[in-house]
Design goal:
By secondary structure, the protein is of the alpha+beta class. The protein has a domain at 62-142: Pdz3 Domain. Helix content is 49%, strand content 20%. The protein is built from 5 helices and 6 strands, in the order H-H-E-E-H-E-E-H-E-E-H.
């Protein structure tokens, strides 16, 4: 008896089902894929939470970098920002935040003082210009999306570097 198309078609379908069954059954690869998807989703949620926390922390509109002597210098003042309105200038030395000197010894106190920052809050900076101290009080503004994106990228790069990946 010669096999016909009518008998081969159901056999081919059964063979296809038999070969595909392990893929439907799960297995180690499926568990790995599920774990990866879950971790990716959690990392994305963490990133979204971090972005929202950064957004809510407010923005002064000034960028500060540590110079060779260890002093914090204003390197940029964005126009139409709280820092610009308060008269902060490029080259000003930032010496204190909320009355806390910007020193390594005060690192924890500074972190604690900045932790509760929110858009709309008033914060005080002590600046030094030409050797004379000057206090400025700023009302924190919303963080622009471009700045937020840069902060997130910087935070991610720091996290990768701290994990030994960079």
């Amino acid at each position: 008896m010669r096999p016909t198309l009518r008998t081969l078609t159901p056999l081919a379908a059964l063979l296809a089902l038999a070969l595909a069954a392990p893929a439907w059954a799960g297995g180690e690869k499926c568990r790995e894929d599920a774990a990866h998807a879950k971790a990716t989703k959690a990392a994305h949620l963490d990133k979204a939470d971090k972005a929202e926390a950064m957004r809510q922390s407010g923005w002064t509109g000034m960028e500060v970098e540590k110079d060779e002597a260890g002093a914090y210098r204003v390197v940029r003042v964005h126009s139409a920002t709280p820092a610009a309105t308060a008269g902060v200038r490029v080259g000003d030395r930032v010496v204190a935040y909320q009355g806390i000197a910007l020193t390594e010894a005060n690192k924890e106190a500074l972190h604690a003082a900045k932790k509760g920052r929110k858009v709309g809050a008033r914060v005080a900076y002590t600046l030094e210009r030409g050797g004379a101290p000057r206090e400025v009080v700023l009302t924190l503004a919303e963080v622009p999306e471009t700045v937020l994106a840069r902060w997130l990228a910087e935070a991610e790069a720091e996290q990768v570097a701290a994990a030994g990946g960079g």
